[in-house]
Design brief:
Elements (H helix, E strand, L loop, with lengths): L2 H27 L2 H6 L12 E6 L8 E6 H4 L7 E8 L2 E9 L2 E8 L2 E8 L2 E7 L4 E3 L30
């Protein structure tokens, strides 16, 4: 190989390798329970469909998984639901659905950080009730399970003063 061939090979490797590594990254990080929740097998996953974060919601040193699948979790209104999974004795369990992007607030309820979301021009705050997160303005909507209500665009935004910049 001459110098030019080596240079071309290195440039192509630098350009193509990160994309190939990213494509496999979600299957190395996310547990099988996340893919099963979205109705996929790990071997069939397209990582371009997923966005995820690892966050410690209860400051116990164990990271929880927050993930969305763009093809299965996004609404026509332009937001995606983010699913939260927590490490359990026998794998990972789904503990909440939060619509839209959220931010951990410094405040806590029942040992878990409160979460703030902004959707359709309104702010929502979700708090932990011991089993799941629920919208503080609509706690009755979550009494029976982990599904969060679809945001109501005509509802006034929450104003609890807990937002951080």
């Amino acid at each position: 190989m001459n110098f030019r061939s080596i240079l071309i090979f290195l440039v192509l490797a630098v350009l193509l390798l990160p994309g190939a590594l990213w494509a496999a990254k979600c299957t190395r990080v996310l547990p099988n329970e996340v893919f099963a929740f979205f109705g996929e097998k790990r071997s069939d996953v397209d990582c371009d469909d997923y966005e995820y974060k690892m966050v410690d919601l209860n400051d116990d040193g164990q990271l929880e998984v927050v993930a969305t699948n763009y093809r299965r979790s996004c609404e026509d209104a332009g937001y995606c639901n983010f699913e939260i999974f927590e490490k359990a004795d026998q794998g990972w369990k789904h503990i909440a659905t939060i619509p839209g992007r959220f931010r951990l607030l410094p405040t806590k309820t029942n040992g878990y950080h409160d979460l703030a979301t902004w959707l359709l021009g309104h702010r929502y705050v979700y708090v932990w009730n011991g089993r799941t997160y629920h919208d503080i303005n609509r706690p009755e909507a979550n009494e029976g399970g982990t599904q969060t209500p679809t945001p109501q665009p005509d509802r006034p935004p929450a104003s609890d003063g807990a937002e951080t910049g």
